[in-house]
Amino acid sequence: MLENLISAAGPHASAHFYRTSAGAEIDLLLRWPDGECWAIEVKRSLSPKVERGFYVACDDLKPSRQLVVYPGKDSFALGARTEAVSLAALCRQLALKAQP
To answer: Which one of 51, 86, 96, 99 has the fewest CB atoms closer than 10 angstroms to its CB?
Structure first.
């Protein structure tokens, strides 16, 4: 799944894993040339739940988008700033962002 997301983001986005010693963690952090960053968490469940460490990491980094990719088809809010999306939908969004 991570390889698909990184490929869809294109060569200009830099991909990172983020983890602090305190346990704040983001599975995939994409940074775009314009400075924008997207925090992406990967879940296998059809009812994804995000751990506290993801929110702590997002508080640290202030990404413009907080996304949870999961195996379902629908998109829905998981909180005030976090959205659950399917792999296909997120790949389309990444490909659009990657266009010049």
So the answer is: 99
